[in-house]
Specification:
Blueprint (H helix, E strand, L loop, with lengths): L9 H28 L4 H32 L1
Amino acid sequence: MYSATYLPDIHTAREELARLTAIETNLRKQIIDLRTNCRGNGSAETWATIYTERLQQDVRPSINECLKYLAKHA
């Protein structure tokens, strides 16, 4: 997912990991909010599903890749 130019050094990888972790936290909060405060709203469930898919398909794999990079180069 990430190229050598995208994670050129440990500093950049740490910054990217922090950014991705913040995105993950925000998405998780949004999902919880949508499923608890907007229960029964079809649109809210649609957004919760979209956010869940984004976490699983994009954010978590990217976090894992950053962690692997840091483990290998730190």
